[in-house]
């Protein structure tokens, strides 16, 4: 019986390699765009679609790994005498499997313990820092022009012809003593140059990333949101209550990642104000000094970002949102609470029932210290039971409204109810 001839192992492996290479390129580009803070704003709703594309391509990569499984034994037998190829195969498999497993955890993080997400995100990032430079080096140094054999030195003397095994005469190459071969081949020069360029480009930011990420699994030294200098000029600084000063939760465990959709704003106590208006009986506008006189409370809660990372045991100090709403007097027609960021762009909203939850806080201190500008200070909203895009940074206005409001990320595809 006749039949279609099955492709050889070499052809099958080449086809899988080609598909895998293109998939990794798409994953790399989409992943870098998703993690690039500056791209969050201009991608807009496209960021949600890009994230879905990243997930689907990752799943297709898993299919490639499954297809490779039956060929692996034959492939290993084929390269058993080639240690460099075996090493490269091992590295690539570790990268792909690690990316896939950590990516699945990040994809399904809503159904898993939050600490799993922190670990998965760290692993995913680490493999990216290691894997992309490795893949770039491997790809560039294996391009056809990079593997072109070294040109032979100029032949200057005629060598006698020798008989080849088949009887045909052959010439042995002869080189001029005046022109010795180069100490480094063209291929070696390219390999060293590419390796050095990648090292210079990657190592410094990698160590900065490692320094930040190592804190994700232990207590922060001086409050997760504290930096030595703060561009905001808020005088006087808020005096912490005893529980806040003593950091009753023991200090935040983890590090906050700075995400913003606009340039980071700056604030000054001389011009800063906080307003409650809309459907209220008593619209109120506080300056900085008056706002600091409001009665504050201290609470300990976890902080979860929808991108997969969490910071645990944060000690927040601030004014309960329910207290502010009570002071303004909510009219019967008000059904939603809209929040305005001081960046002039970002907004979000909660239902009136959600806004009156006892742990929703308008915070001014974190772990006993003023909230740094980069993390939403001088005042930010904290909604512990929801993902952090509801916790509006640089909060400066609250409006009571009748109709639902869809915030910056909700109109770009995020859930309006952001329960953790």
Automatic annotation (TrEMBL):
PANTHER family in alphabetical order: OXIDOREDUCTASE MOLYBDOPTERIN-BINDING DOMAIN-CONTAINING PROTEIN, PROTEIN-METHIONINE-SULFOXIDE REDUCTASE
Pfam families in the cross-refs: Oxidored_molyb (PF00174)
Transmembrane parts of this sequence: 21-43, 49-68, 89-109, 121-140, 189-207
Oxidoreductase molybdopterin-binding domain segment(s): 263-409
Compositional bias (Basic and acidic residues): 152-173
SUPFAM superfamilies noted in UniProt: Oxidoreductase molybdopterin-binding domain, Transmembrane di-heme cytochromes
GO-annotated biological processes: respiratory electron transport chain
Entry superkingdom: Bacteria
Keyword Repeat annotated: no
The protein's name: Molybdopterin-dependent oxidoreductase
Any Gene Ontology CC annotation: membrane
Disordered: annotated segments: 152-177, 218-243
Keywords on record: Membrane, Transmembrane, Transmembrane helix
